[in-house]
Automatic annotation (TrEMBL):
Official protein name in the record: Molybdate transport system regulatory protein
Annotated InterPro entries: LysR_HTH_N, Molybdate_resp_trans_reg, WH-like_DNA-bd_sf, WH_DNA-bd_sf
Chain ranges of the HTH lysR-type domain: 30-86
GO molecular function: DNA-binding transcription factor activity
């Protein structure tokens, strides 16, 4: 196998004990899009889902977390991240990047030549 074609793939999420997923990459990507686009409707369109489904997923995440992730922007149609939502998104990005980099490094150290992931 060609090492240049080998990639490390990971999927991470946080769970509540005995309750399942708290949030994961899908929720974090939706928050990122809301932050970039300022709109849940535009974020939903980018994700290929209805506004209603996106709103439901967001509400489910907020209920499980017990904190608001986004807030309505007064005077205009749109949403922005709450300070907690921004902190959660930034922490997620750092955590994901650090864990993936560690996993890549360990895979390079542990796997034999020909299986070591390059990316």
């Amino acid at each position: 196998m060609n090492e240049e074609r080998t990639r490390l793939k990971m999927r991470m999420w946080l769970e509540l004990k005995d309750e399942g997923a708290l949030f994961g990459p899908g929720t974090m990507y939706m928050l990122q899009l809301i932050d970039e686009l300022g709109s849940l409707n535009k974020a939903a369109a980018e994700l290929g889902m209805s506004y209603r489904r996106a709103w439901g997923r967001l509400q489910e995440a907020e209920t499980r977390i017990g904190r608001e992730l986004v807030e309505h922007v007064r005077g205009r149609k749109g949403y922005r991240l709450t300070p907690f939502g921004r902190e959660a998104l930034e922490a997620w990005r750092r955590w994901q990047n650090e864990v993936e980099e560690f996993a890549r490094q360990r895979a390079r150290e542990l796997f034999p030549e020909g299986l070591r992931p390059q990316t």
